[in-house]
Specification:
The protein is an alpha/beta fold. 44% of the residues lie in helices and 20% in strands. It is built from 14 helices and nine strands. Strands 1, 2, 3, 4, 5, 6, 7, 8 and 9 form a nine-stranded mixed beta sheet that branches. β1, α2 and β2 form a beta-alpha-beta unit. α2 runs antiparallel to α11. The longest helix has 35 residues. The radius of gyration is 21 Å and the shape is globular. Bound molecules: 3-deoxy-alpha-D-manno-oct-2-ulopyranosonic acid (KDO). The site of 3-deoxy-alpha-D-manno-oct-2-ulopyranosonic acid has 12 residues, from loops.
Length: 329
């Protein structure tokens, strides 16, 4: 595999090329890493990539963020990378579960305890076979885990929600993949598939009764402008995986690969701390905006959701004993 030239190599090659009369355009341009995501450019994960990841790799690669699903629709990025039409994405266990059902374990309600637990699971030996399968079968390398935050119910109605039974008939928007729709059903609601970029207008028009996202997303997407309450279910301590094409990654030199991996880990940690800080201060922000913000009967939600998963076809795809291993981390 030829390694990509870094800027220094290119300057040296450039001058010798000019001296020997080779047109400069013949030299390889710096590697462009296009990332497509439904996230906005002001979301903490995007800011982490733009302000931390991009500068750290600029010697040998150019990061190009395409936000608000402007390059590929939400949920189509992994296939685009597999086909060589995209280099990076912010993917999810739910999207990966479309290709590998066993990934749904990492998207199960009330499984991950917190951000640190997500890091432990991603770095643990139990996760390595999952990473390898995605590399071998899809040609996608999961670089690092990103903290998206604890998902909370966010409704345009003001009916008080205490238990899953109170969500009967509520049209709860979920992202379009099967694992997401199941989470909406497990919560007791009527799950309605809709792309992230359509949620604001869906809430505004009443096409949906509510959505579920972490507090930082709710603020960044301004969902609080078109909703009346936030129910602190914390039903999923949600994560994303920063993903890169394995083919593209393998062309970098070992040193460049180490730098890129470190840049990914550092950016994801920076984003994690920023999301955690936002989560701590946003409950008051939403109350000041006039929303009701309260905790429901958490035991009722936790036991109902966990029972739904354990009795579902999803848990049949989970390797035996893996839930216990994850809980022990
Ligand atoms: C969403 O569509 O609700 C979701 O939170 C799903 C996540 O996996 C991720 O795609 C996220 O949207 C986007 O990054 C926008 O924040």
């Amino acid at each position: 595999m030829t390694a990509y030239p870094n800027r220094r190599d290119m300057i040296v090659a450039g001058t010798s090329a000019v001296l020997s009369g080779i047109p400069l355009g013949a030299l390889a341009a710096p590697v462009k890493l296009r990332l497509s995501s439904p996230a906005s450019a002001t979301d903490a994960r995007a800011v982490a990539l733009l302000e931390q990841f991009a500068p750290a790799i600029k010697e040998f690669a150019t990061f190009e963020g395409h936000w608000n699903a402007s390059l590929f629709k939400q949920g189509t990025e992994l296939e685009a990378i597999a086909r060589g039409n995209l280099e990076m994405s912010i993917t999810s266990a739910q999207e990966l579960a479309e290709f590998f059902p066993e990934f749904s374990i990492f998207s199960a309600g009330y499984l991950h305890r917190d951000a640190e637990h997500q890091k432990k699971v991603f770095a643990s030996s139990l996760f390595q076979p999952f990473k390898k399968k995605v590399e071998d079968k899809l040609g996608v390398k999961l670089l690092s885990v990103m903290y998206l935050g604890r998902r909370q119910l966010n409704l345009r109605t003001d009916k008080t929600i205490r238990t899953p039974a109170d969500l009967a008939g509520v049209k709860l928007r979920m992202p379009g993949s099967e694992a997401w729709l199941f989470l909406g059903k497990a919560l007791g609601a009527n799950p309605t598939p809709m792309a992230f970029t359509e949620v604001y207008t869906g809430l505004q028009s009443g096409a949906i009764d509510g959505q579920d996202n972490p507090l930082p997303t709710n603020k960044d997407a301004k969902f609080y402008e078109v909703t009346k309450q936030i129910v602190l279910t914390s039903h999923l301590v949600d994560l994303n995986y920063l993903a890169i094409s394995k083919k593209v990654f393998d062309k970098f030199s070992p040193d460049q690969q180490k730098l890129l991996q470190k840049a990914a880990d550092d950016a994801c940690e920076w984003g994690r701390q920023r999301q955690l800080k936002l989560e701590a201060e946003l409950e008051q922000f939403f109350k000041d905006k006039g929303l009701k913000v309260y905790a429901p009967d958490l035991n009722a939600f936790r036991s109902h959701v966990q029972a739904q998963y354990l009795n579902s076809k999803f848990s049949k795809a989970w390797p035996a004993g893996l839930v216990d291993q994850i809980n022990k981390l």
